[in-house]
Structure formats: structure tokens, C-alpha cells
Amino acid sequence: MTILTRPMLSRRGLIGFGGAAAGGLLLSGCDAVVRNQKLKAIVQSSEAATQRWQRLIGRNGLAQEFSAADMSPIFKVNGTQEPMEPEYQAHKAEDFANWKLAIAGLVNKPLDLSLAQLRSMPARTQITRHDCVEGWSAIGQWTGPLLGSVLKAADMKTNARYVVFRCADNYGGELSKGGAQSTSIYYESIDLVDAFHPQTILAHSMNGGPLSVGHGAPVRLRVERQLGYKQAKYIMGIDVVSSLAGYGSGQGGYWEDRGYEWYAGI
Amino acid sequence: MATGETTGETTGETTGATMGAAPYLFHRHALAVRVTHWINALAIVFMIGTGFNIFNAHPGLYWGQYGAEDDDAKRWLEIGSADTPQGVAYGFVRIGSLTVRTTGVLGISSGGNGQPQAIAYPAWSTIPSGRDLATARNFHFFFAWVLIINGLVYLGYSLATGHLRKDLLPRLKELRPANIGHDIIQHAKLKFPRGEAAKRYHILQKLAYGGVVLVIIPLVIFTGLGMSPGTNAAWPWLLDVFGGRASSRSLHWVAANLIILFIIVHLAMVVLAGPYNEIRSMITGKFRVDPEVTK
Predict the structure, then answer these.
(1) A56-62: long-range contacts at Cβ-Cβ below 8 A with a sequence spacing of 24 or more?
(2) Nearest C-alpha of chain A: how many angstroms from B8?
(3) Of residues A130, A143, A138, the one with CA closest to residue A225
(4) Tens digits of residue pLDDT in A95-117
(5) Contacts of B17 (CB under 8 A, 6+ apart)
């Protein structure tokens, strides 16, 4: 033996003790780390990096489209099953005959489109995959006019930056996580790159029939390069805006107000 | 690794008559390797913990383009809970037609309040502990950037200096079954290399480290990107390679489990080979080389 090894025995013991202690502290330490607000802000800055990266590698990329044989036998209804708000129930009772989609905000020609008018517009039909943030996915067929065509008809002002979708459903749950200004009414928003993407449509039909209540009747958004929570159902109004500050807690959506990424391309 | 610069400074004093030479400190790991190792370790701990939390939001895996609750034919793995006919709750892992009861660990485990909780991975194993998909995703994607950038720095360094070629890529003769078999036997006997042989990786180390660095971590990154709808649109070939988004998610889970397996074996070997010397070598770079036993 050499004298080199002698002090190491005790140091070795220390490392063993330190290792066990570190193991025990690791998990509570990780919790402390993820609850740290300053650190959380740094961590959330990676969302912008992800958005910039995805726009760099494929700003105009198209989501994969499938054949009818690839479709899910059962397309799960997720989130709100049916909005119970009186206004929505009244529209539903009339089969949405008097429902009107208002396109307002930073537009030169505000529009008020009936379901019949939306259905008479040139439509795109696409069989695409819907990816829920939870991890499941389903393939379905969607039909509706391009959101871009509707926005062009409304003639957006030059300071427009985002398109906000106001929905009928009061989603309720997890209100506490959204902060004092949060709303429990579902809403979503996208930027103009996604709004004018050639696969971004206002779907009034699904799998060959009218959109069911479970899937968002009368009209839902399909923004195919993003996760399921961006595909706003039960759209009651579309606002063209320059800032998301006026909606909910200002994060751009119901789930975004509760900590989820606004850019949901991942 | 910088095997080229042998700074074998002899620090010990020879006192034992049975040994031909004293142990000495050898500069084993280059600074860039040490720094990227620990950043990688930190990122992977967070990736696994947040990954468990994300998996808990939908604890089933499918093969193909899609998969959800109703797609039983496509589901090959499920971690869940159910009741016996007597009404006793149990946790299970189902792979294909094989179901294993895992109450206490997977499917049902002790929650933060000590009460049994129906959850795939136990709260103590997830970051944050307990269900929090939003925070878990925020951290998962942040550390994904850390993992990728750190990995590129490591790869750039390793290619530029020859670390990859000299230290990690197996020589053809090392891959002979006899050599691999010999190495496995030495490991089973817990006999670790001494002398000159301790200065370089043996074949099992090369296969394990090289496999993790060059195969499994790239696989976990690309299968992760395969789940991203934005990346799918930009890089449609990704899902052609992996066979669909549900398949990509499955392979992501498999690759993550291979990393977990590697970490368990890696830490066990560090402990068995002498944790002080091993951990020091990855912090200061200095590794104590014991002389070969001469009889």
C-alpha cells in the first residue's frame, strides 16, 4: 500500500455518504428548481427558440396528408363534449341557422358570416393527423374554407399580428392556475404565418359529414402543424389583433394561460 | 480523453515491496469531455424525470401512424390500474398479451400525501413530482436544447481531436468474440484493468459509451422530433424512417429506457471500480493508475 490510498478511505466514505444524501435531496431539489419563477422564465424562453428553429427549417412545410384507409376508426372527442352555455344551446337548437361568425378587430371590412355562407365558400378537404398534447393521436378528414381566404376578404390592417379565436365553451377546470385575470372560456390564437398556411382551415365538416357537437360544431380551427389544444372548437368570433394582452391572462389561449406553450409545434 | 498527452506524474511513494511501481495519477479525461459529461448528465436527469411526467398524461404506447384509447389493436404497452373481482385496486404493466402486476411502483403508487394514487410512473420519480404536464413539457423542451447543443459541442470536439476515433470506436480485433467474452468474464469477476490497460477503454466500455453517444442519444432526439407536428411538416422523412408518429413515440420510450439501463450499469460500475477514483477522473481529469500485480 502507499500513503496515497490512506486518506482516500475516509474520502471514499464521504463520497458514499454524500451520494446517498444527494440521491435523497435530488428529487426534492428538482421540485424546488422547477418551482423557481426566475428559472421558469429562462426555461420558457426555449419556446421562442423552438418556434424560430421550426420556422427556419420549414416555414412553408405541409403537414402529412393521408388516404381514407389511414383514418382512425374512432376519433376521440376530447376537451369539452358539449358547451352548456345558453347562447350555444340556443344556436344548437336551431341547427346553427342564426349563428354568425364575426371577423372583427384590425380589419377594414368586418364580416358576419353565416354557416351557409361559410359552406358555400371554396373549401379544402384534408385527411390529417391530430396530435394531442397528452400523447395520443388520431387521423380524420376535415373540410372548410381557408382561414387565409376569410382574412383576405376582411382586408386586414397592416398592424395585424395575431388571429384570436373566441369559443363558446366554458372549460372551467384549473382556473386557479391561470392567474387572477384568467378566463375559463376557451380561446386560442395563432400568428399570421400559421393563419395563412395553405392547410389552415375553418372546418365545418369532418369525415364527410357536418362537424358534430363533440368535435366543435358549427366550426373549428384546423392548424395542422400544431398540437390539439390549438384546434379551437365552437368558434363564435375571430379577432384580428396586434397584441394578445387583452385576452385572458395574455398568454394567447386557455391552456397557454395555464402554463402550456403558445407555440405548440412540439 | 486526450490519451496523447500522458502527464503521468508520480505522486505516491513506494512502500510495498510486492509492487513493482507506485500508483500514479494519469490525465485521463480532457476538460471538454468532463464539462460536456456533467451538462449531459444534468440534462438527462431532467429529461427522464419530465419524460415520466409527460408519459403519465397518456400511459399507453402504439405502433403506427396514430393511436388513442380506442385503438386497442395498435396498443402494445400500457401502464395502468384496475380492480380485482374482489374490488382490490392493483397496478399493472401490459406488454402485448403479457400483464405483470406492479402495484406500489407502476400503475398505483404512494402519492405525495402517502395515499395510494393511480398514476403510471410514481410521483417520486417524476419532475415535477405529481401530475403537471405543462411544467414538465416546459422543462423537457428546454433541456432538449441543452442536450442537443451540448451533444454537438461534444461531437465537434471529439471529431476534431480524434477522441471519437482513438478512444471510442472499437478496433476490428477488439470485436472478436474471444475478446468480448474475455472482457465479460473479467467484469463478472469484478477484475478491472491495471497498469497501461487502465488508461484506455476496453471493448465493453467502448460499445456502451459509443452506443449511447452515437446511437441511443441521437435516436432519442430524432424520435422526440418525430412526435413534433411542426417538425413532421418540415422534415416528412422523419416519420418515414420511424413508421409513424405513434411508432416514433414508442421508440422514444424504448430509447429512453435504454438510457436508463445504461445509467444503472454505468453507476454500478463506477461504484465497483472505485467511486472516488472514477468520479475524480471525471471532475479533475486525474485518474489513479494502479500498477499491474506482479507475482
Answers:
(1) A57/B231, A57/B234, A57/B235, A58/B230, A58/B231, A58/B233, A58/B234, A58/B235, A59/A193, A60/A197, A61/A225, A61/B233, A61/B234, A61/B235, A61/B236, A62/A198, A62/A199, A62/A224, A62/B233
(2) 15
(3) A130
(4) 999 999 999 999 999 999 999 99
(5) none
Among candidates B54, B69, B236 on the partner chain, residue whose Cβ is nearest the Cβ of A76: B69
Nine cell digits for residue B96: 402485448
Partner-chain contact B145 A15, CB within 8 Å = no
What are the pLDDT digits (tens) for A168-179? 998 875 444 444
Side chain identity at A80, as an amino acid letter?
A: T
CA distance, residue A78 to nearest chain B CA (Å):
11
Task: Note the pTM of the prediction, 2 decimals.
Answer: 0.90
Q: In the prediction, which pLDDT does A12 show?
A: 45
CA distance A20 to A43: 28
Identify the pLDDT of residue B293: 75
- Segments of chain B with pLDDT less than 70: 1-20, 294-295
DSSP state of B166: I
